[in-house]
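[job 4417] fold queue: 2 targets
>>> target A
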Amino acid sequence: MTLTQLSALATLSTEGAMTPGALAAREKVQPPSMTRVIASLGDLGLVDRAPHPTDGRQIIVSLSSAGQALMESETQAREAWMTEKLSHLDDEQRATLRDAVVILTSLVEND
């Protein structure tokens, strides 16, 4: 599993089903690159492809049940890792991280 594949799965997980073009734009990659990513994820059984309801030239990509299970597993593993790491910090260090999260969130939301 590549980082690009995981990122595409994460976007589908948080934002829901979308066209390949919308997914490419969200991931900031060229549509042909996303087409290859979607094909590989489809081969792995992690995404489903369905006809677009109003545009016969398009498809809608969504997480399959296997893709949803993978994303839930990845999320749980990341949360467990972070919880363990944070448990070793003192109150001042955790407060600094909270402040940094506010700043980083502001930067991302203004993108």
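>>> target B
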Amino acid sequence: MYQIYAKFTVKDDSTDEVLAVLGELIDETRREPGNISYQLFQSTGDPTILTVFEQWKDQEAIDAHNASAHFNKALTALEPYHAAPPVIEVYTLVR
């Protein structure tokens, strides 16, 4: 199993737009066969910080997700809203 943490810091006035884009992405991603879990969290201390917690069956599932139309559409749509580069961390279950 793989776990991905994707942290986004968005511009102050764009949170609603970003949440709408991510909402569509989440709905599509949860239907992917290799997806175990895909959840969006918003910081309680800073609402411009959003983190997606993802769980995937294997690397092939991640690769399929990254190649999907809905993922690439979301990446393009989110690009103008970033206040800082996204931080993406990938982990694999070791125990």
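[job 4417] complete. Note on B: The first strand starts at residue 2 and ends at 9.
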